[in-house]
Design a protein that fits this description.
The structure is a single chain. The protein is an alpha+beta fold and 724 residues long. The protein has 5 domains: 21-98, Alpha-Beta Plaits (2-Layer Sandwich), CATH 3.30.70; 111-232 and 354-414 and 672-721, no CATH class; 243-334, Distorted Sandwich (Calcium-transporting ATPase, cytoplasmic transduction domain A); 426-455 and 554-671, HAD superfamily/HAD-like (Rossmann fold), CATH 3.40.50.1000; 457-552, Calcium-transporting ATPase, cytoplasmic domain N, CATH 3.40.1110.10. 50% of the residues lie in helices and 19% in strands. It contains 27 helices and 27 strands. The strands form 5 sheets. Strands 15-27-26-25-16-23-24 form a 7-stranded mixed beta sheet, with helices on both faces. The two termini are 33 Å apart.
Length: 724
Amino acid sequence: MSATEYQGAVACPGCAATPGAATTASGAARREEVVLSLPGVHCAGCISTVERGLKALPGIADARVNLTMKRARIHHDGTRTVEDLIAALEKLGYEALPLDMVALSSTETDRVGRELLMRLGVSFFAMMNIMLLSVAVWSGAADATRDLFHMISGAIALPTVIFAGQPFFKSAWASLKAGRLGMDVPISLAIILASSISVYETFNSGHHAYFDAAVMLTFFLLGGRYLDHRTRAVARSAAQELAALEVPRAMVLRDGVEEMVAVSTLSVGDLVVIRPGGRVPVDGVVTEGASEIDRSLLTGESLPVPTGPGKAVAAGEVNLTGRLTLRVTAAGKDTSLARMAELVAVAEEARNTYTSLADRAARAYSPLVHILSFTAFGVWMWITGGDLRFAINISAAVLIITCPCALGLAVPAVVTAASGKLFRAGLLIKSGTALERLATVDTVVFDKTGTLTLGRPEPLNLPGIAPESRAVAATLAAISSHPLAQALAEAEQDRTQVEEIREVPGYGIEGRWQGTPVRLGRAAWVGATGGALTATWLRIGSDAPIPFTFADRLRPGAEDLVRGLMAQGMEVHLLSGDVAPAVEDLAKRLSIPHWQAEILPEGKAAFVSGLVAEGRSVLMVGDGLNDTGALAAATVSISPASALDAARVASDIVLMGQDIAPVSDALRISRQSVKRIRENFAISFGYNIVAVPVALVGLASPLLAALAMSISSITVTLNALRLK
């Protein structure tokens, strides 16, 4: 996130009345709820600071911070506005973004994960109890005693299998209705056959029942399914996150009267008022007022740009300093922000067509399993002269011993081990296929501000400026929210007495020091000639203007990362919406040969899509809303934890710390992971080559087949753990 985006986001959105708010009533008391995104919270200390600071405000009933989701849920008595709360958080040192919780409500739950975990627990409990009963049978229980233990085992196993096996049964039925054999078809058949044979043997006083095998199969398969779910689940859609950042309400000017209305009711030609600090809810043209606009969300420009009558602004941009009146040119689904959300949604759908190694292996594996099982049944029916009971036992044993449990664990076991290793290195893996895609990367595309740099300008030439001038500049800068002014105020601690200080929106700050007029701001405003460097200028009376120059601070590890990527033969690109001099300067500092400046979000996405269409495997690293289309279009993508929610959810991997060097670890570990996955496939198929003939000749009962299957699953898991 750029410095301008940071500063603008802190104070947004003045034009939104109650985004993310819900009003409830309890008796006569009014109670409202506001949900704010807090990208900067990262520890228990942050939680304590935010919660205590908010609760100290009048009218706040309760405040809770969710560290995982990086959100604050605030209840108040209706006397507080979103602007008040965001300003209070700014004073505490935390940026805040309003969220439309209606847009997010469908993405807040993890129902599938909870259901899998519940079914896994039920199957484990049942398996342990059935094993205890089986010990009595194995110890020599006979006749009525044996039948009783079998019945008790069945009473436990059958409801367990019916309940816990639902994910496999539903998936298998869907596959059959679609006319294909998915991996869950042989799994379901194996569970059903083992249970059916066990029921038959129990009611016919058979010596062996395989309820333990059926439940064991279910438990191990659910374990693999849960691991797979945890590694694949992306919490929310990036397109929905973009929609959640849209401003739901706006201040419209009708007949000279300001009225708060829903953005959905606006139409082209309406006049909308944007207060300082407000996020622009529509695309429009300024008709009145002067200000500075932070458009880093949409274009990546690191510094605010001045705006005034006749200038165009877009939804999602932030008004920093002055009040503006806009004439609407596009609203709702026609705005820039809505088009960006659509762009991300299309790119996400395209990337979801990637098929994992396990899925590709299952396509060939599932038909082979059925062929072997049915062949065994037919051959033994012919050999035994029609002994249905014996032939079904052999067929079930073959189906169980070839059950693709190890194949199902091959990928998630490795991804889970690799995810743990990368998490300790500062990287969070969100997609189950991310490592497989990352291992193929040959081209890396970087965003500039907030990715290779920290998005925080720092003064370069303070030591060469007179102390009195520094103190005057810092005193003026202290009242402004402009990122250069705030960087100057933080770097220079000395202050002096300056009177009549006021900020001139779009230009700078002025006042009187020792009776002399002083100005800090744009070059032309103070009578200076600006150069290529980023700078703010100070003029004291009639003295020559003094430049305070700035440079964006490099993210730790950026130089080592780029150098390492190029040493590996990677093609490295730098794309930025920032101005050419700033982008060129960074490209030279990092020795990146390919760079583009002033590129729009659509241009970034098109550039990345073009590389992918050429057959390149592209890693995109970015952090802003303007990067979400490119992040989703890339083969695989990484975002820093400081990125906006929309960028994080559009990416496959999140960089948790400031140091970007672990990206090279991700590339190395991804190659190791794919190697382990292929080894696991080899183990799985090798096990079948040995075990299947044993089952085919009748030397393995369904119980022995289940035990052999479990051993293969454990072997695959242990091989995956070698990554650690």
